[in-house]
Design a protein that fits this description.
Number of helices: 4
Structural class: alpha+beta
Radius of gyration: 24 Å
Number of strands: 13
Order of helices and strands: EHEEHEEEEEEEEEEHH
Helix content: 10-25%
Strand content: 35-45%
Length: 217
């Protein structure tokens, strides 16, 4: 549960634009925006390493921002990460107070030992729930121990943490447990169509032509 906020120091951001953002990232900082509760959007700069550590295991981390001495309680709403290297590029924070409930998307986690010969498929990787801002679960656990093939586990079947309520239809499918052999038998072999083979031949020819042109240059 995210019942204890992680403190991050922040500075007000006064320079804007892509060039300014790139310069901040080169300096080991990450731009962020803070909004909500009727306030104007506020732009700040955080230490990237500290931010990455605070957000690495929780998509909805509760953060106590120390903005140049001012304390602001926020909930992480969106994190943009570097596509290749480990690193945070930008963060959106929502201003909250400790007494309110919020609706958040929580990742689904499978636990337990499956029945022999079964395979499970996750139909809903995240679940929208309503929870106290100080008691947001990091995951929604789905126990597949002893679940027979042919069973669809729905939202109504889940045992949610105390004070956490699903914000989607109770009949929403979350996990589908199926017979492993039946699933394997249903997977068709991929046979390229004549058009695909022709396209592949054309691409190969283009590649050879390009290599020849490059060698001539």
């Amino acid at each position: 549960m995210a019942n204890k906020a992680t403190t991050l120091k922040a500075q007000n951001r006064t320079d804007f634009g892509k060039g300014s953002a790139r310069q901040a990232r080169r300096a080991g900082q990450v731009p962020a925006v803070v909004y909500g509760h009727g306030t104007d959007p506020r732009h700040v700069i955080l230490d990237e390493h500290a931010t990455r550590l605070a957000l690495r295991s929780n998509e909805n981390a509760l953060i106590e921002l120390d903005v140049e001495g001012e304390s602001v309680l926020v909930l992480t709403k969106d994190v943009q990460r570097h596509p290749i290297r480990p690193g945070v590029q930008h963060v959106d924070f929502l201003v909250v107070n400790r007494n309110e409930r919020v609706e958040v998307e929580i990742p689904v986690a499978i636990i337990g030992d499956p029945e022999p010969g079964t395979i499970h498929m996750i139909d809903s990787s995240h679940l929208l729930v309503s929870a106290p801002v100080t008691a947001i679960p990091e995951t929604i656990e789905v126990d597949i121990t002893g679940v027979a093939a042919g069973t669809v586990i729905t939202v109504a079947d889940l045992k949610l943490p105390e004070n956490v309520e699903a914000a989607v239809d109770a009949e929403t499918a979350v996990v589908n447990v199926a017979d492993e052999e039946a699933v394997t038998d249903e997977v068709p072999e991929t046979v390229p169509a004549e058009g695909d083979e022709a396209a592949e031949g054309a691409e190969a020819a283009e590649g050879e032509s390009s290599e020849e042109e490059s060698s001539e240059e």
